[in-house]
Amino acid sequence: MNNLLDKFEDSIDNLNKTEYFSQKSIELKQILLSDEVTQKILISLDKFERNQKFCDSNLTLTSLAKELNTNNKYLSKIINLHKQKSFTQYIHDLRINYFIDHLKEEKSKYRSYNIKGIADDLGFKTSRSFSTAFHKKMNRYPSDYIKEIKIKKESSFDQI
After folding, report:
1. HSE (side-chain half, CA atoms, 13 Å) at 146
2. Are 54 and 95 in contact (CB under 8 A)?
3. pLDDT score for 129
4. Which label site among 6, 11, 58, 130 has the fewest CB atoms less than 10 Å from its CB?
5. How many other C-beta atoms can be found within 10 angstroms of the C-beta atom of residue 142?
6. Using one digit for the tens of pLDDT, what is the confidence trace for 21-36?
C-alpha cells in the first residue's frame, strides 16, 4: 500500500511540474512588447539589413541583440512575428537573397568563386550549411543555380 501511495504522490508532483513548465512556456510565448519597442527594433533591423551586416560569420542572436540595444527574447520574438521565421532562417534568407542579387550582376565576383568561397564570403560556417540553406529556399543547389545564370547570360549574349 505504501508503494502505491508513493507512486501516486510522484504522479501528482510530475503533474505539478508539467503544469508549472507549461505555464512558463505560455508566458514566454506571450511576451508583450510595446509598439515603441517593436518599432525601434524593426527600424534597427532594417538598418542592419541595409548595411549588410548579416554576412558576419560571427553573428549570433546575442551579438545582434547587443548591437541593437535589446535582448535576445525581444529580438527573437520580433523576428518570429514580423519576419515570420526563426532567427537562423532570417539570417540565411538575407544571405541567400544577397548572393542571388549579386550573382545576377554582369561582373559578379561570385561567378568565379567556388562554393566554399561563396559560403565564407556570405558568413556561413561551412559550404554544406550554405548549400543546405540555399536548397531549402530555392529548391536547387547553388552550383546548379550558378550554372543556370551563366547559361542564361551566355544565351542572351548570343542573341545580340
Report:
1. 17
2. yes
3. 96
4. 58
5. 23
6. 444 333 435 567 788 8
Looking at the structure, give the CATH architecture of the domain made up of residues 91-158: Orthogonal Bundle (1.10)
pTM for the model: 0.76
Where are the chain's structural domains? 1-30, 33-84, 91-158
Q: CB 19: neighbour CB atoms within 10 A?
A: 10
Do 131 and 115 meet the contact criterion of CB atoms below 8 Å apart?
A: yes
How big is the CA angle at 106 (ends 102 and 109), to the nearest 5 degrees? 55
List, for the chain, all residue ranges whose pLDDT scores fall below the cut of 50. 18-28, 158-160
Q: Per the structure block, which three cell numbers stand in for 52?
A: 549588410
DSSP symbols for 33-52: --HHHHHHHHHHHHHHHHTT
Record the cell numbers describing residue 9, joined without a space. Answer: 504522490
Cell triple for residue 1?
500500500
